[in-house]
Amino acid sequence: MHDYGSFATQPLPVQRSPRRAAESIELKGIGTDGLAHAGRQVAIAGVVSRLTGFIRTIVLAAVLGTAAVGDAYNGANNMPNMLYELLLGSVLASAVVPLLTRARRQGRKRSREFTQRVMVAAVVVLAAVTALTVACAPLIVRVFVADSDQRQLATWLAYLLLPQIFFYGVAVVVSAVLNVRDSFATAGWAPVINNLIVLTTCGVFVLLPGPVTLTPTSITTAQLLTIGVGTTVGIAGQTAWVVMALRRNGFAWSWRVRPLPYTWRPVRSGLPILGWLLVYAAISQIGVAITMRVAFDHGGVSIYTYAELLFQVPYGILAASVLTVLMPRISRAAALGDHASVLADLSRGARFLSAALIPVTMAMTLLGPGFAALVFTGRVDPEAARLIGTAVACSAFGLAPFALVMLQMRVFYAYNDTRTPTVINVAMVLTKVTTLTIGATVLSDHAVIVMLSVASSFAYIVGAVAGYVLLRRRYGLLGFSAVAATAHRVVWATAFAGAAGLAVIALLRSMIDPPTIQHLATVTAGAAVGAAVFLLAARLIGIPEVSSARSLLLRS
Predict the structure, then answer these.
(1) How far is CA 164 from its chain centroid?
(2) Distance between CA 14 and CA 1 in Å, rounded?
(3) CA 27: distance to chain centroid?
(4) How many angstroms separate the CA atoms of 292 and 333, rounded?
């Protein structure tokens, strides 16, 4: 029987042949204590990286604002960032890990050679794709931006920021190698390097001579180069961190591997996977293009960007740590044909994600507007701060479905199935584009800006439902009755917590008049009371996942 960690029940025993048992020993990876330790380390790294990233977001908003210059920067920076979030950050990593995991079954020497060739092939392909994308920067920006002055600024920024694609891709491949080697937390600290470099860049930007009011025509060349080059250097520093981490892990990246014909072998073995990944990427970029065009047309690029960054904070802290640790385990079980263990990890991950993210959804809905007003007012105009908070609150319902669909896709990728996630992505992109098209037709500018985030959450729900149906059709019972039971208990606990938090917020609003003090008091007291009531209700109702998570935190 497998040992799967202290926050889950054990699956039924799986009968294996002696050879399969030997392979299981070889590919078993980390056990209970190792999984718990790895999960804690990744979560800690996620907290620090998201915290510094949040500070970076506030500073960028204060430096660039949410008007034309801020929109041009965020629009140009969103191109490589969204490519990372939608493709490289999850899809490519999820597809590479199973390939490397299966290579480990062929022995240490063959695994190392295969990994070297994958990395060399990735560098060559990423360099070519990045060069082509940078060359097409004017055409890409023209799709998004209608205003001529803003388009010119966005084009120059795109030239400086699109090279991030190469560094993002290398970081993802190297991180996948680290994960296969059961090293998880090191790569989780890499974004901190990026955030610190960008914060330093903002400091230099402020010290440069320039206009009092930034516009696309008044920003100086020095300011443009500083913010553009500094942002890309931040991603390069993040990549350098994970490359050095791989070397410290004992893997020497050798460039002596001949690119041809030997590097062609892993490329050839991955062509069926790569083809669907490219289709996935193309579909995603269509969705990104339409989203960014709507955002530019309604002056909401920066607001949408900052709302999405806040939306990603709990996912990065609570969900990404679970998915990062589970992916190699799921891949190892899939490589052995151990479907029961794969489905056990799927159910386990879904239960933990439900227990972690449903209460956070309530917190974001209630506290999002006040929190955004507290941290953004004075750095951007009050209306922009209000829209950021409204977008976070209205789109929070998509947080748990987003994490669930990312988990579901990892199961498909573990079996080298990239076609099914592409089908799911088609459904999500169609949902988002349809929602935005209808919203842009009938809603006001401010409502459309909020709808940019809401449309994403609708898409995540469609993706999660489609993922469940397709997994159920392929693998039969998924063990989601236990997930539904956990979610039901968590919803009740969350309802009690939300009611208590809402009562405290209403009371403090009636007692405190100064807006800043009111926002600080309501956010602090609402979060504290809500968390306390949720933990008490979870204990009384009996939610094992919450109890196990609390035990893991205490052990850390």
Answers:
(1) 17
(2) 7
(3) 27
(4) 40
Model confidence over 372-416: pLDDT tens digits? 998 888 778 888 899 999 999 999 999 999 999 999 988 998 888
Here the tokens at position 468 are 């469940």
Phi and psi, residue 145, nearest 5°: -110, 130
Among 340, 249, 263, which residue's Cα sits nearest to residue 13?
340
Q: What angle do CA 404, 406, 412 make, to 5 degrees?
A: 105
Residue 253 · residue 243 · CB < 8 Å:
yes
- CB count, 10 Å around CB of 293? 17
CB-based contact 75:296 (threshold 8 Å): yes
pLDDT in tens, 88-114: 555 555 566 666 766 666 666 667 777
Q: Which structure tokens are listed for 351?
A: 């239960």
Contacts of 120 (CB under 8 A, 6+ apart): 255, 257, 259, 263
**71 neighbors 216 (Cβ within 8 angstroms):** no
Measuring CA to CA, which residue among 25, 6, 5, 7 is closest to residue 17? Answer: 25
Q: Say whether 377 sits in a helix, a strand or coil.
A: strand
Query: CB–CB of 202/60 below 8 Å?
Result: yes
DSSP state at residue 398: G
* C-alpha 5: how far from chain center: 24
State the average pLDDT for the chain. 82
Grouping H, G, I as helix, E, B as strand and the rest as coil, residue 380 is strand
**Nearest Cα to Cα of residue 6 among 256, 348, 342:** 348
Site of tokens 């591997």: 257
**3-state secondary structure labels for all residues of 166-200:** HHHHHHHHHHHHHHHCCCCHHHHCHHHHHHHHHHH
157: its two tokens: 């920024």
Helix (H, G, I), strand (E, B) or coil at 532: helix
Pair 310, 392: CB distance under 8 Å: yes
Helix (H, G, I), strand (E, B) or coil at 479: coil
CA gap 422, 428 in Å, rounded: 10
What is the token pair recorded at 226? 């500083």
| Segment 464-497, tens digit of pLDDT | 999 999 999 988 888 888 899 999 999 999 999 9
Q: Do the beta carbons of residue 78 and residue 93 sit within 8 Å?
A: no
Residue with tokens 């996620």: 46
Residue 88 DSSP code: I
Please check whether residue 161 is in contact with residue 79, taking contact to mean a CB–CB distance below 8 angstroms.
yes
Question: Do residues 460 and 431 make contact, with C-beta atoms less than 8 angstroms apart?
Answer: no
How many helices (H) and strands (E) would you count in the chain? 22, 0
Long-range CB pairs of 102-106 (<8 Å, 24+ gap) are 102/331, 102/335, 104/26, 104/27, 104/180, 105/23, 105/26, 105/27, 105/335
131: tokens are 């060069």
